[in-house]
Write a structure and sequence with these properties.
single chain, five-stranded mixed sheet
């Protein structure tokens, strides 16, 4: 098991889809920091590029008192984020393609 950390170097939408395409078949979890201003677009790109069934975790305010985690298929996570406050610090964890919850 392992992971790949990309700290704020993922290109802004719409160029992020090239980054995601590059790591589509990556064998490990991708961990990406994302700005509160781009988190909704980043998840939208994940759904469009990696597919709605790709397992994703959006972690908000990690290590803080009110940390939250939204986990599931990317399309479900996208729907739940649409109803949530998008202020704060975010980490995206993208599971390998063959990962099953």
């Amino acid at each position: 098991m392992g992971f790949f950390l990309s700290a704020f170097c993922r290109p802004s939408p719409p160029h992020g889809s090239r980054f995601l395409e590059k790591y589509r078949a990556f064998d490990y979890t991708l961990a990406l920091y994302e700005s509160c201003h781009r988190i909704d677009k980043a998840v939208e790109e994940i759904v469009a590029t990696l597919g709605p069934a790709r397992v994703l975790c959006v972690a908000k305010e990690v290590t803080k008192l009110y940390e939250t985690f939204v986990v599931g298929p990317a399309a479900d996570v996208q729907g739940r984020l649409a109803k949530a406050s998008l202020k704060g610090e975010f980490v995206l964890l993208i599971a390998p393609a063959d990962f099953v919850l």
